[in-house]
Amino acid sequence: MFRLGSLTNYQDDHRQVTPPVRGTFIGVFLAYCMAVLFHRTDDDACPFAKDAEGAVLAVRSAGWVPPTRGCYAPSTPATTNAPSPGFLKVLFSLLQIKWRFSSPHLHFQFQTPSFSLLLGVLIVGLFNACTSKPTPFPTPSPEGFVEMEIPSDNPLTYEGVTLGRALFFDPILSLDSTISCASCHNPALAFTDGRAISNGIAGRTGQRSAPSLLNIGYHYKGVFWDGRSPSLEEQALHPLNDSLEMGNHWEIIQERLLLHPDYSKLFRLAFPDASMNKATTAKALAQFQRTLISTDSKFDRVQRGETQFTPQEQRGWTIFFDAGYPDVPMAECSHCHTDPLFTNLNFANNGLNESLSLDDFPDEGLGRISGNKFDNGKFRVPTLRNILLTAPYMHDGRLESIEEVIQHYNEGGLYAENLDPNVRPLHLSDKDQQDLIAFLQTLTDSSALTNPMYYPAKK
Ligand code: HEC
Ligand code: HEC
Q1: pLDDT grade, residue 244 (50/70/90)?
Q2: What is the CATH number of domain 158-294?
Q3: Ligand 1 neighbour 59 (Cβ under 6 A)
Q4: ∠269-273-277 over CA atoms, to 5°?
Q5: pTM
Q6: Which atom of ligand 1 is closest in space to residue 232's alpha carbon?
Q7: Which of 99, 233, 316, 336 has the fewest CB within 10 Å, making it most exposed?
Q8: Which CATH superfamily is domain 298-443 in?
Q9: pLDDT digit string, tens, across residues 133-149
Q10: Does 422 sit in the ligand 2 pocket, CB within 6 Å?
C-alpha cells in the first residue's frame, strides 16, 4: 500500500502538498466517514433487487408495520456486493472537489493527494464490500401476540431470510434432489402437505402428519408433535438427515451448495462472519420460518373491529370460547386451542386412543421424550389457524374431515387415565356443530396463503 503511494515520488518535491502515506490515511478516514454516513441509507443501497411485489412482500399483520424496503429476493445476486450508489456518489464528488481545487497544477496534483485519496477510498470500499453487515429484518410483532423469542446468535436479517427461503424451496437438499421442505410444507396448504402421513424420498412414509408452519416462530415450548426439538435451528437439521424424509448427509449437501452458482454468495451475505456449514444452514432456515405469519383471517379482522361475524360464525365463536353458557353450549376448545395462536403450546391427550394401561399407546408422543409414563399419548396442541386447509387431521392424519374431528370431541374422546378432563361428551346438536365449523372457517387467512414471500423467489 505504501509502496503504491510512493509511485508518485517522481513529481517535484515542493509540489507534494500531502505526503502519499498521510494522504492515504486521510483518504481512508474520509472514505470511512462517508461510507458510514452513506452506506445503505436509501432504497438503492438494498443489496438485493426488489421483488416486483414491493411492500406486500412484507409479512402482513396488524400492529406491525411491514418492512417498506422490500429488500429480499436475490434475483440479481451477481451485483449484490457492489458498493452502494450512495458510496460511489461520495467517492466521485471527493475526486471532483480535488480536481477543481488543483486545476492549475492538474498534472501533479492528481498524482499526489488524489491518488492516495483514491487508494484510501478503494481500501475502505473493499473493506466495506467484504464486511458489509446483513440488514436487520423487523421482528414480526402482530397485535395480541407475545413477543417472538429470537435466539441472540441468530437475529433476523433480510439476507438470512432470503437464504432460508432459497433453501426451503430447494430440492437439492434431499438425497435424490426430488424433495424440498416445501414438498411437505406447501405454502398453498398453510405449509402442510394434505396427506395423513408425509411422503419422503422414494415414496417412503414416516409416521406423522406434517404440521402447518405458519406462526411457528412462536412455538417457544419446542417443535414437533412431541416437542422433541427445542428450537427451529435444531429442528431444521432433522428432515435433512431423516432417512424417511430427505435422506441426505451433510457432506453431500455442503458439496452441492458449494458447487451451486448462488449459494456461496448468499451464505456470505447472510453470515459474513461464518462459513457455509450445518449451523448457518439451519439458522437461515429458522430465520425464514420465523417470517411465516398468519394474522389476517376474518377472525383477526373481527378482533380489530374491521368486519363482523355472520350470526352463525358468531354463535360458533360463542361455543368455541364457552362464552354463552347456559344459552349456548360450551365446547371447551379454547382451554387448549387458545387464541391468538389457537394453541396454548402445551401437550395433551385428547382421547384418540382407548388405552386401559398407560403403556398401551401406538405412538407414545411426549412420553417417549420425557420418559414419564403419564405423558404417553400426549401430543402438542396444534394451531387451528387455517385448519380448514390442513386436512386430514391429528398427528397421524387419522381423521379425514373437520366434521369427524367435531364428532370426535362431541363424543368425549376415548378412555385413558391421562385423558384431559376438558375432553368430555359435549352434547352438541347438528346445528351447534355446523356453527362451530363456520367459526373455524373464519380462521382461514388467504393473505398468508398468497403472500409472494412465502413462495420461491422469482428468478
Ligand atoms: C417428507 C416430508 C417432510 C419434509 C421433506 C420436511 N418436513 Fe418438516 N415435518 C414433517 C413432519 C411429518 C413433521 C412432524 C414430525 C413430528 O412431529 O414427529 C414435520 C415437522 C416440522 C416442524 C415442526 C412443526 C411443529 O408444528 O412443531 C418444522 C419446523 C419443520 N417440519 C420444518 C421443516 C423444514 C425446515 C424442512 C426442510 C429442511 C422440512 N420440515 C422438511 C414432514 C416433512
Ligand atoms: C385438552 C385439550 C384440547 C381440547 C379441549 C381440544 N383440543 Fe383439539 N387438539 C388437542 C390436541 C392435543 C390435538 C392433537 C392430538 C393428536 O394429534 O394426537 C388436537 C387436535 C385438534 C385438531 C386437529 C389439528 C390438526 O392440525 O390436525 C382439531 C381440528 C381440533 N383439535 C379442534 C378442536 C376443537 C374444535 C375443540 C373443541 C371442540 C378442541 N379441539 C378441543 C387438544 C385439545
Answers
A1: confident
A2: 1.10.760.10
A3: no
A4: 80
A5: 0.80
A6: 29
A7: 99
A8: Cytochrome c-like domain (1.10.760.10)
A9: 899 999 999 988 999 99
A10: yes
